[in-house]
Amino acid sequence: KVKVSLKFYFSTPPACARNDDTDHFICYDEVSQRIRAYVAANEFRFIEYLAHSLHAQTRDYIASKMGDQAGSIILWMGVHKIKLPVDYPVAGARYAYCDAPKDSQLVDVSW
């Protein structure tokens, strides 16, 4: 069992933050359904590979929904494997990836 966390960082507010009637928005339900379907249809051995695969899938979705603004959106993706296949207590394993430029100063990248 894995838990997936996403964060979207916008350099400027998206259209849906300024107007409640727009076609340019990220539907979080669509994102989660796409992630669930992708994970169910594939097998993954490493959470790092899963995170990067989901990141690419979500990036494609953002591009299809946000048009020109997609390139300015920073995507943070975290994957948490809840239970590890070991016989001693451990709080799972986590891996995160963010496509922010190295010199960016993101606030709150914890999870």
What does this structure look like?
The chain is built from 3 helices and 3 strands, in the order βαααββ. It is elongated. By secondary structure, the protein is α+β, with helices and mostly antiparallel strands. The mean pLDDT is 87. It has a 3-stranded antiparallel β-sheet with strand order 1-2-3, with helices on one face.
Strand order of the largest sheet: 1-2-3
Portion in helices: 25-40%
Low-pLDDT segments, ≥5 res: none
Main sheet record: 3 strands, antiparallel
Reconstruct the topology from this structure.
Blueprint lengths: L1 E9 L4 H4 L9 H14 L5 H20 L6 E9 L11 E6 L13
Antiparallel strand pairs: 1-2, 2-3
Helix pairs in contact: 2-3
Give descriptors for this structure.
3 strands; elongated; alpha+beta; single chain; 34% helix; 3 helices; three-stranded antiparallel β-sheet; 111 residues
What would you say about this model in short?
By secondary structure, the chain is an alpha+beta fold. It is 34% helix and 22% strand.
